[in-house]
Design a protein that fits this description.
The complex is a heterodimer of chains A (about 250) and B (about 425). In chain A, about 15% of the residues lie in helices and about 45% in strands. A 13-stranded antiparallel β-sheet of chain A has the order 6-5-4-3-2-1-13-12-11-10-9-8-7. The radius of gyration of chain A is 20 Å and the shape is globular. With about 425 residues, chain B is of the alpha+beta class. Chain B has a six-stranded mixed β-barrel with strand order 3-4-9-6-8-7. In chain B, strand 1 and strand 2 form a beta hairpin. The longest helix of chain B is centred in the N-terminal third of the chain and has 39 residues. The chains are: A alpha+beta (about 250), B alpha+beta (about 425). At the A-B interface, loops of A face strand 7 and strand 8 of B.
C-alpha cells in the first residue's frame, strides 16, 4: 500500500513537472532573442509621447548597442532644441549629456527618456532571466496567439518595476504584452508590442505602445527604423563622442 | 578756518541743505539696502532651518553595489545616544523622510518633494506653516493625509478630501504608487514652500519601501542660528568618536564644505552606514555669495549716485567760487595763503559730506525702524527674507565707515578743482572783479 502511494505521489510530481514549462529557460530565451551578444546593433527610434492637455511631442533618437560589453549610446536627433543630448552607459552607470551646459549628469537605466513613458531600459539589452523569477503562470489566448501569462517578481533592486505580468507567445519566446506594477502592487503601465522586426535572427519590437495607467490619456508609442548590426566604431561608446558629435 | 567753513555753509542754508540732502539720499539708499542684506543670511538661514527642521543635520549614507548611494538612518540608537552625550542643547530633534514624486489628479499632474515627519511632535513647524484650509489635526489623524500649498492645489484642481495618486521611487529606485488624501492647504510661503508637500512619515516610508521606524535625516534644532558655531565642532567630534563619519573639511577641488561632503560619497568606498554631518551655515555658504554680490552692488549704486552728485557739487562750488571772488581777494590781501583758500573750500565740502552722510544715516535709521515694526505676516511672499514675519536690518560698522569714507573722498574730489582755481586767483584780479 505504502509503495503504491509513493508511486502515485512520484507520478503526480512527474506530471506536474512535465506540465510546468521551464520558465527560467523561457526568460533566458526571451533575453537571447532580443539581445545582440555577438554583434553591434544600431537603429533610429521615433518616440511619440501624448499627455493630457499637452501637444504631442516627437523625439527621435539614434541608438547604438554593444550588448556583449553592456554598452549603449542614445543620441537625441529631434526635437531640435534637444538635439545633441545623449545617454551613455559605461558599466553600471548611465550618463546624460547636455550640450547646452556641456556637462554630464548621472542617470540610470530606470530613468525616462525625454519625459516620455519609455525608459532607458526599454531600449537596452534584456536581462529578464537575471532580474526576475516567475511566481505564477497560466496559458491563455491573446488575439490569435496562444500565450503564457507569467507573473514575475524581481530578484534584485536593479529594476524599475518590482512586479511584472508578461504575455509570451508559446511558440516563440517573444513578449506581446506586459504590465508593470509598483511595489505597492498597483498597475503603472501597460506595454503592447504589436509588431516585431527580425534582425539577424533576433526579434526586436518594431512598434510598441506604452500606456500610463496612472495618468489617463498619457501614452507613448515608439517605432524602430534603420536597424542594422553593422560594426560600430569603439569611440562611439565614449563621453568624448557625445561631446564632439554636434560640435 | 573751521569756523569760517561752517559760517559759509550756514550763509547759504538752502544750497547747503539741497547738496547735503542729495548726499543724504545716497546714504539712505545704500544703508537701507546694506542693512537688509546684512540680515539676509541670518533670516534666510533661520527660515530654511524651520523649513528643513534643523540648524544641524545628520544623514546616514549607505553605498550600493553599483556605486550609488542611499540616504537612510536605519538604527539611530547610537546616534541619539551620542547627541545626548555631547553637550548640545537641542530644542527639537526631527526625524524626516522625503521623496520627489509626481502627484496626479484627474489628468493634472505636478512634481513635488513630499516631506514626511512625525507632525504631532513638530510643533515649531506647525507654527511656521500657515494653513488656509484644513488643519494639522486632520493630518495627524489621517495616516495618508497630505498638505499641499494653495498654488499646487490650484494646479491640480483639488479640494479638501480629494484623493490623489502619487508616483515615486523607492529608496532603491523601484517605481511605486501611493494614494494620499488632501487634508489641508497651506499658504504658499515662497519658492521652497511651493516645492514641498507634507505628509506622515510612516506612509512616506512605506512608499520609500523602508520601515516606519527608519528615516532619511535627523534635524537638530537649536535656539538660534547663532548657536551653530558653539555646538557644531563639539558635536562633530563626539559623533566622529562613535560613528563612521564623513570628514567635514573643504577640499582643494571643492572649497564649499557642504558640496565637498557630497563629493566624498561619490569618491569613497565603505561598508555599512557612514554618517554625514552638516549645518545650516554650511548650506548657507552659497547665500553668503549672494550677500557679497548685494554688498558690492550697494557700493556700485553708491558710486553711481555720487558720480551724479559730484557733478552737482563741482558746479555748485564753481558758482561759490565766482560768488566769493571778492571775498577770496580780500582774504588773500589780508595775508591768507593759497593753501588756506584751498583748505577752506575743501573743509566746506568735507563738512557738507559728513553732515549729509550723518543726516542720511539718521533718516535710514528711522526708515529701518519703521519697516522693522511692520508685520508682513508669516504668509507673505517675502516670508523667506523675514524674521518671524518682520523685516530686520543689520548694519556692519565697518561698512558704514567705508560708505562715509567714499562719500567724503568723492565730495573732496568734486570740490578740489573749484578749490584749486579759487586758490590760484590773484588778489588784485579778485578784488577788481565785479
Amino acid at each position: 500500500m505504502k509503495r503504491t502511494c509513493l508511486i502515485i505521489l512520484l507520478l503526480y510530481h512527474a506530471i506536474l513537472a512535465a506540465a510546468d514549462p521551464d520558465f527560467a529557460t523561457l526568460l533566458s530565451d526571451i533575453d537571447e532573442l532580443g539581445n545582440f551578444d555577438d554583434v553591434d546593433f544600431s537603429a533610429v527610434y521615433t518616440i511619440v509621447s501624448e499627455k493630457p492637455g499637452e501637444e504631442k511631442s516627437v523625439t527621435q533618437a539614434r541608438l547604438f548597442r554593444r550588448d556583449f560589453n553592456d554598452q549603449f549610446v542614445m543620441l537625441i536627433l529631434q526635437p531640435q532644441v534637444q538635439r545633441g543630448q545623449g545617454y551613455l552607459r559605461v558599466d553600471e552607470t548611465v550618463w546624460f549629456y547636455d550640450p547646452e551646459s556641456r556637462t554630464f549628469e548621472k542617470s540610470t537605466l530606470r530613468d525616462n527618456v525625454q519625459d516620455s513613458d519609455a525608459q532607458n531600459s526599454d531600449f537596452n539589452r534584456n536581462s529578464l532571466a537575471d532580474d526576475y523569477a516567475v511566481v505564477s503562470w497560466e496559458v491563455a489566448k491573446l488575439g490569435r496567439y496562444e500565450v503564457y501569462v507569467l507573473d514575475l517578481e524581481s530578484t534584485n533592486d536593479d529594476v524599475s518595476y518590482e512586479k511584472m505580468r508578461l504575455w509570451v507567445r508559446t511558440d516563440i519566446a517573444i513578449i506581446l504584452k506586459e504590465e508593470n506594477f509598483s511595489v505597492s502592487n498597483r498597475l503603472m503601465r501597460t506595454v503592447v508590442y504589436p509588431k516585431y522586426a527580425k534582425i539577424d535572427e533576433r526579434y526586436l519590437p518594431s512598434n510598441a505602445l506604452i500606456i500610463d495607467e496612472l495618468n489617463e490619456g498619457e501614452r507613448t508609442q515608439f517605432s524602430l527604423q534603420d536597424a542594422t548590426t553593422a560594426r560600430i566604431p569603439d569611440h562611439v561608446f565614449t563621453k568624448s563622442y557625445l561631446e564632439r558629435v554636434n560640435h | 578756518m573751521i569756523a569760517i567753513a561752517f559760517r559759509n555753509l550756514n550763509r547759504q542754508k538752502k544750497r547747503s541743505f539741497l547738496l547735503g540732502g542729495a548726499i543724504a539720499f545716497g546714504i539712505v539708499v545704500v544703508t537701507v539696502m546694506n542693512g537688509f542684506t546684512g540680515a539676509f543670511v541670518e533670516n534666510v538661514g533661520e527660515n530654511f532651518s524651520s523649513i528643513f527642521a534643523g540648524h544641524m543635520f545628520v544623514t546616514g549614507v549607505e553605498k550600493d553595489s553599483d556605486g550609488g548611494t542611499t540616504e537612510i538612518i536605519r538604527d539611530d540608537t547610537l546616534l541619539l545616544q551620542t547627541i545626548a552625550k555631547a553637550r548640545v542643547e537641542p530644542t527639537y530633534l526631527t526625524k524626516r523622510s522625503e521623496f520627489r514624486g509626481t502627484i496626479y489628479f484627474q489628468g493634472n499632474s505636478v512634481t513635488q518633494t513630499i516631506v514626511g515627519a512625525e507632525w504631532s511632535e513638530a510643533s515649531f513647524f506647525r507654527e511656521r506653516l500657515a494653513l488656509t484650509e484644513g488643519s494639522f489635526g486632520a493630518l495627524i489623524e489621517d495616516p495618508r493625509g497630505i498638505i499641499l500649498s494653495e498654488e499646487i492645489a490650484e494646479i491640480l484642481n483639488v479640494e479638501i478630501g480629494d484623493r490623489l495618486i502619487v508616483r515615486n521611487r523607492t529608496i532603491t529606485g523601484q517605481q511605486n504608487v501611493g494614494e494620499f488624501r488632501l487634508v489641508a492647504k497651506s499658504h504658499d510661503p515662497g519658492l521652497i514652500g511651493a516645492l514641498s508637500a507634507y505628509a506622515n512619515i510612516c506612509y512616506v516610508n512605506e512608499l520609500l519601501d523602508i520601515k516606519c521606524s527608519e528615516y532619511r535625516s535627523l534635524g537638530i534644532m537649536l535656539r538660534s542660528l547663532g548657536e551653530i558655531d558653539r555646538y557644531a565642532d563639539e558635536l562633530y567630534e563626539e559623533l566622529a568618536t562613535a560613528l563612521d563619519l564623513f570628514e567635514r573639511e573643504k577640499t582643494e577641488e571643492e572649497p564649499n564644505p557642504f558640496r565637498a561632503l557630497f563629493d566624498q560619497a561619490d569618491d569613497e568606498e565603505w561598508e555599512g552606514t557612514r554618517y554625514r554631518f552638516y549645518t545650516m551655515n554650511d548650506v548657507m555658504q552659497q547665500a553668503d555669495q549672494i550677500v557679497q554680490i548685494l554688498t558690492t552692488a550697494g557700493i556700485v549704486v553708491l558710486l553711481v549716485l555720487f558720480v551724479i552728485i559730484m557733478v552737482g557739487i563741482t558746479n555748485t562750488f564753481r558758482m561759490i567760487m565766482i560768488e566769493r571772488t571778492k571775498e577770496i581777494g580780500t582774504m588773500r590781501a589780508l595775508g591768507m595763503q593759497r593753501g588756506g583758500i584751498r583748505q577752506l573750500f575743501i573743509l566746506e565740502a568735507l563738512f557738507l559730506s559728513l553732515g549729509g552722510a550723518l543726516l542720511g544715516l539718521a533718516i535710514a535709521a528711522v526708515i529701518m525702524t519703521i519697516l522693522s515694526r511692520i508685520f508682513w505676516g508669516l504668509d507673505s511672499t517675502i516670508f523667506i527674507l523675514l524674521k518671524n514675519g518682520y523685516m530686520t536690518f543689520k548694519l556692519v560698522p565697518r561698512q558704514v565707515l567705508l560708505h562715509f569714507g567714499i562719500v567724503a573722498g568723492l565730495t573732496i574730489v568734486a570740490a578740489f578743482v573749484p578749490a584749486r582755481r579759487a586758490a590760484l586767483l590773484r588778489p588784485v584780479d579778485a578784488l577788481r572783479s565785479i
